[in-house]
Design goal:
alpha/beta, Rossmann fold, single chain, 19 helices
Length: 417
């Protein structure tokens, strides 16, 4: 074990060095470094007067936060005498949610090391640790186990080609053994864990289903969107990258004028917005510059936090990311409204994207003419209705993961109730 731990420590140090170098020219890396300056002393000051017991939840980034959020909010409601501490690894999570009111404290997570992990736990002193989906940090989990702190992993998803199930995965398997219980999304993940002797496992699905259902039930007013869509059929494209933008430009050119596009880029930096505007010359208006001008055909949303509410305006939703290695983004935010979804060819690593397609609520294509034909759907309204119904049914059939996690905490009396 020691040799694996030493290699891991070296890799973490090399990663830290690489981020430091990247911070000289990469804004996200710069935020990563800046956000961790004097981090532990700042946390100690923030928590100095906090007398309540604490629950700590850690998320890698924004996507994992959305998975953890239903549990965090149920904890806030069900255990009001506990302080909730939320940490992020990535700037794309922390910078967006650093003012999130559902947690009492929001911090970056210090880089994984023996000293950082020990000091962090001494400061936070959690009664329960919750890790979301993919985050495994050896020194933190080692200290959690040594100190006898209950830890759970939620919405986890495993595949047989991961290190946990390989001959070189000794350290990774040890990290899994540090959790008191692991909640996995599907049966295949549970089977893989049991094969390596991890038996404290529940197959309870993905908490993101609960989260998107909550969002869909919120009464959110968006006057700009209401004005833009009036009298038109709307394609909402979410979390788009450059490849998606070009694909959408080709698609829109094949559609009648009564189609409009709301495009929500994955990155809303000035350069990306300008590139989208070049693809649609004379057709665009930015969300931030809206002047009640309904003559434009493309609305570019250059603000964050609106996408999950904008999908309700869609006739069909295009989910971005599936032309790149990282794969398709969250399909559930659109499907929950009963909106048929479409995305590019790289989606197989995401269980929900595969299942939605199999359920009949989505298609995958890299051909604009195929997508444009789907969007018209003029000659087969029944097919459209069926796809819409299948999309919504799929999401609602998967609800309940949050309830089972909360029931586990109650039955085990982990938080004393």
């Amino acid at each position: 074990m020691r040799i694996y731990a030493a290699i891991y420590w070296l890799l973490i140090r090399l990663y830290a060095l690489a981020i430091k170098i990247a911070s000289l020219f990469n804004p996200k890396a710069k935020l990563f470094i800046k956000g961790r300056q004097d981090l532990l002393p700042g946390m100690q000051d923030a928590l100095r007067q906090e007398s309540r017991p604490r629950v700590w939840m850690h998320c890698a980034s924004l996507g994992e936060f959305e998975q953890g959020r239903p549990v965090l909010e149920r904890l806030k409601k069900g255990y009001p005498d506990f302080a909730l501490v939320l940490t992020f690894f990535s700037p794309s999570g922390y910078e967006v949610r650093k003012n999130y009111e559902g947690a009492d404290y929001v911090f970056y997570l210090p880089l994984d090391s023996h000293a950082n992990a020990k000091r962090f736990l001494d400061i936070v002193h959690p009664s329960l640790c919750i890790f979301v989906k993919y985050e495994f940090w050896y020194f933190y989990l080692l200290q959690i186990k040594k100190q006898g702190i209950p830890a759970i992993l939620i919405s986890a998803f495993f595949m047989k080609d991961q290190a946990f199930f390989s001959w070189y995965g000794t350290l990774q398997r040890y990290m899994l053994s540090c959790f008191a219980h692991i909640f996995v999304q599907n049966e295949a993940s549970g089977v893989l864990l049991k094969k390596i002797g991890i038996n404290d496992v529940s197959i309870n699905g993905d908490t993101r289903f609960d989260r998107v259902i909550e969002i869909a039930q919120e009464k959110t007013t968006l006057p700009i969107a209401d004005a833009f869509v009036k009298g038109h059929r709307i394609l909402v494209a979410g979390s788009t990258w450059k490849e998606d933008d070009f694909f959408l430009q080709q698609t829109l050119s094949l559609l009648p004028d009564y189609f409009k596009l709301i495009i929500v880029p994955h990155e809303v930096d000035v350069q990306h917005i300008a590139e989208i505007e070049k693809l649609f010359p004379g057709l665009t208006i930015r969300w931030s510059e809206w002047k009640n001008d309904n003559t434009k055909r493309v609305l570019i949303v250059d603000s964050v936090g609106l996408l999950s509410h904008l999908y309700r305006y869609a006739y069909i939703a295009w989910i971005g990311g599936a032309f790149g290695k990282a794969g398709v983004h969250n399909v559930l935010e659109a499907a929950v409204y009963g909106k048929p979804c479409a995305y590019g060819p790289i989606f197989h690593q995401f269980n929900e994207a595969r299942e939605l397609l199999e359920a009949g609520g989505a298609i995958s294509t890299d051909k604009p003419e195929v997508f444009a034909e789907m969007l018209r759907w003029e000659g087969d309204s029944e097919a459209y209705k069926l796809a819409s119904t299948d999309a919504g049914k799929y999401v609602y059939s998967k609800a309940g993961a949050t309830n089972s996690i909360m029931e586990y905490l109650r039955s085990e009396k982990i938080l004393g109730m």
